[in-house]
Amino acid sequence: xxxxxxxxxxxxVPTKQCFEVLNPATEKAAGLAPLAxxxxxxxxxxxAKVAQKSWAKExxxxxxxxxxxIAERIEAHAEELAALLTAEQGKPMGGLGSRWEIGxxxxxxxxxxxxxxxxxxLQDNNEGRVELFRKPIGVVGSILPWNFPVMIAxxxxxxxxxxxxxxxxxxxxxxxxxxxxLVELMNEVLPRGxxxxxxxxxxxxxxxxxxxxxxxxxFTGSSGTGKKIxxxxxxxxxxxxxELGGNDAGIVLPDVDPRQxxxxxxWGAFINTGQTCAALKRLYVHDDVYEDxxxxxxxxxxxxxxxxxxxxxxMLGPVQNLxxxxxxxxxxxxxxxxxRVLLGxxxxxxxxxxxxxxxxxTIIADLDNGDRLVDEEQFGPAxxxxxxxxxxxxxxxANDNPNGLGGSVWSRNITTARQVASRMECGSVWINKHGMIxxxxxxxxxxxxxxxxxxxxxxxxxxxxxxxxxx
Length: 471
Known about the structure:
Elements: E1 6-8, E2 11-13, E3 18-23, E4 28-34, H1 38-57, H2 60-76, H3 78-89, H4 98-113, E5 120-125, E6 128-136, E7 139-143, H5 151-162, E8 166-170, H6 177-186, E9 195-197, H7 204-209, E10 216-220, H8 223-232, E11 239-243, E12 248-252, H9 258-270, E13 280-286, H10 290-301, H11 322-336, E14 340-343, E15 362-365, H12 372-375, E16 382-388, H13 391-399, E17 403-404, E18 406-410, H14 414-422, E19 428-431, E20 446-447, E21 450-451, H15 456-461, E22 464-470
Parallel strand pairs: 7-8, 7-10, 8-9, 10-11, 12-13, 12-18, 13-16, 15-16, 18-19
Antiparallel strand pairs: 1-2, 3-4, 5-6, 6-22, 11-21, 14-15, 17-20
């Protein structure tokens, strides 16, 4: 098996050591990833620092054109990238799986390439002219998660490049292969050193977050890791965009048609086998429709085939890694003691035989705040359902969580739904859907779900410093 290589200064760089990347559906090797040394990380940062001086001098139009060409390169290699993504991440090729993720990456790149940051004239009168300019920060360190390794790499890298920065990306050691190939394709378009990619152990992350030559860190992952990054970056006063954990609440009001909303509830909760920051992770349902919503949701969930990603009939794949499988198993085992298991709840025993990290779709009713599956982020295919009667009480319960990424309200009455949405403490609220992010709308969390926003004009501007010129 030929190992992948680091991408540093426009070149494919070998390493003395490699590590196996497992296919979570088979627990067999999907590929060999390069194990970067600290010296190779320094090489990547140095290359990015040198390249940034000339890249920042290029016109915005030229950078926009480069981003559009990146989208073309991704599109030309879409099936190759999708197959590699399925092999290391586990998600199915079809449905809302790998091909969908690659398509989203193309669309996000194309939209971001259309954005612009012209100077703003704040004042122009007899007292003088005042202009606001957006200037690149310098070298951006991108630390990536394992759930959407291509899409999130695009979210980090493309706005950084468009705004005149250069990038050193570090994928998750669980899913480094597709990101390495993605960055290799980017380097067919970009000048050397503009985007670099190093893979290896988790100790590369702290080295990046404390490095004096990295001006900004963008990170997607858990709140716990985000706090460590925040602390580690303090000495160098880095700019940061942190999209952290979520425990999104959905509130179902009594006027809904349970059958009509079942599909939306299902995909809100179980897209990517529940391994999504802004997935629906706890569902509050009004007493009047509680049993009917439970019944329709379970009925829809039973139709969803789970299997190896190369099976074109599979709609859901395994949990990506053993550690996460064990977290979900532990939370579900606790919930089984307190709630009513409507579906699943009994993971296959780990006997030592390689059988993949498949956790059955699980829905557990009659839980409440204070139960671990409600209070903690499961990041897997297990959904708790909580009964409520009073709207003020349920809003209080929905907000009673340290996270505040997303939320949703389900109702036929849009006016009422908007009123409930306005009282939810989260960065995004959807009505009659959940988690439907889009490239023209800023996305980010409140409370412990993050710092800053991504996407759209506001997300692009997070990769810049402001300079005001008085004349």
